[in-house]
Amino acid sequence: MGRKAKVEFDERPPDGFDPSNPYGDPVAMLDYREHLVREKWIQIETAKIIRERLRWCYRIEGVNHLQKCRHLVQEYLDATRGVGWGKDARPPELHGPKKESD
């Protein structure tokens, strides 16, 4: 028996959940809620990993960290935008910094 080359997870939301009638099937509603929580935790942990890489880059690069770690800063900001509890009800464009009006 050999090992699988890659582990594959089912990342789709559960079947049978109707957003227009969420309480129609309580089991599907709970499965969907667990799916949302799982996806939120994945986003949070990804941001933590990027933050640790950014800390390491700051320490290693010293005075040149502004130029050398810029890509990690942008990646961290993108990873943290819209991540957190209680931000699911707002549209994604409201999660980031305020945009200047022209």
Strand content: under 5%
Helical fraction equals: 40-55%
Largest sheet: none
Q: H/E order of the elements?
A: HHH
In quaternary terms, these chains amount to: single chain
Shape: elongated
Uncertain stretches: none
**Class from helix and strand fractions:** mainly alpha
Provide mean pLDDT, rounded. 79
End-to-end Cα distance: 63 Å
Radius of gyration over all CA atoms, rounded: 19 Å
Number of helices: 3
E-strand count: 0
Provide a brief overview of the structure.
This protein has 102 residues and is mainly alpha-helical. It is built from three helices and no strands.
Q: What topology does this entry show?
A:
Elements: H1 26-61, H2 65-68, H3 70-80
Helix pairs in contact: 1-3
Description:
- The protein has 102 residues and is an all-alpha fold.
- The chain has helices spanning 26-61, 65-68, 70-80.
- It is elongated.
- The model has no long low-confidence stretch (mean pLDDT 79).
Structure characteristics:
about 0% strand; about 100 residues; 3 helices; membrane; single chain; mainly alpha; mitochondrion
